[in-house]
Design a protein that fits this description.
Radius of gyration: 24 Å
GO molecular function: methyltransferase activity
InterPro entries: Diverse_substrate_MTase, Methyltransf_25, SAM-dependent_MTases_sf
Helix content: 25-40%
Oligomer: single chain
Largest sheet: 7 strands, mixed
Organism: Nocardioides jiangxiensis
Number of strands: 7
Distance between the termini: 84 Å
CATH class: Alpha Beta
Protein name: Methyltransferase domain-containing protein
Pfam families: Methyltransf_25
Order of helices and strands: HEHEHEEHEHHEHHHE
Shape: globular
Length: 254
């Protein structure tokens, strides 16, 4: 099951005018497809070489790279927007330093966090099976306190996804805690998920799963030191002015 987002959320994060977008942690390419559909020039990255290979197959016209948020292949000041999922899983300070390096003046970072809407009773039970805490994500503190980015805007977008029995199991497997379980424990949890669906579901017609896309964005601050010289480039030294005899401090005692 691919994790897609509301069109309004993606447009809010990145904009509707054509831009150069660097996607961090592209994964299954669902967000990549949405960015391309909005007309953006997308460079999709992921730390998994296998994921990047799949991305290249799914989106042959999109530039792809195996890279981490903390070490990006892009040259300085080369993209308009950096969009990231799962931002909390990165070394946030190192990632923000890289984001500010590759962003052009006027560019911004965009972060999206997807949560289940646990106001619905069956969704609350599903979240408990996964061990999820029913809390609303806060604005990333590392961005708020960063000297590299300005004020952080925030918005949220509620949306619904139709899931059947297999789709609910696939959604459970997207959770890192479930994906890293040993096979026996994983199968026991999936049995519980299937039982939950059978209690609440509508058979092959599926049921509506409410989710909330929490979105954050912040513009890069243009410091003269925010974009270091590229490798091999020599920084221009400021001209040294020789002191003149009459350059001393003159004090008028009149």
């Amino acid at each position: 099951m691919s994790e897609t987002y509301p069109v309004a959320a993606v447009a809010w994060l990145v904009g509707t005018d054509q831009r150069s977008v660097l996607e961090i942690g592209a994964g299954d390419g669902a967000l990549t497809a949405q960015l391309v559909a909005l007309g953006h020039d997308v460079h999709a990255t992921d730390s998994s070489a296998a994921a990047v290979e799949r991305l290249a197959e799914l989106h042959p016209g999109v530039r792809t790279s195996a890279a981490t948020a903390e070490r990006l292949p892009n040259v300085d000041a080369s993209v308009d927007v950096v969009v990231a999922r799962n931002f909390h899983t990165y070394d946030e300070e190192a990632a923000l330093a890289e984001f500010s390096r590759v962003l052009r003046p006027g560019g911004h970072v965009a972060v999206i966090v997807e949560t289940l809407d646990t106001k619905i009773p069956w969704v609350r039970k599903f979240a408990r099976l996964l061990g999820e805490e029913t809390v609303v994500p806060e604005t990333p503190d590392s961005i708020v306190k960063s000297t590299r980015f300005g004020f952080v805007d925030a918005d949220s977008f509620r949306h619904w996804t139709t899931v059947d029995r297999d789709g609910l199991c696939a959604l459970a497997l997207l959770d890192p805690r479930v994906a890293t379980m040993d096979p026996a424990a994983q199968e026991r949890l999936l049995d519980d998920v299937r039982a939950l669906y059978d209690d609440y579901g509508r058979g092959p017609d599926g049921m509506q799963l409410p989710q909330i896309a929490h979105c954050f964005r912040a513009g890069v601050i243009e410091h003269p030191w925010s974009v270091p010289p590229r490798d091999g480039a020599e920084a221009e030294a400021a001209p040294v002015r020789e002191p003149d005899d009459d350059d001393g401090l003159l004090i008028d005692f009149r």
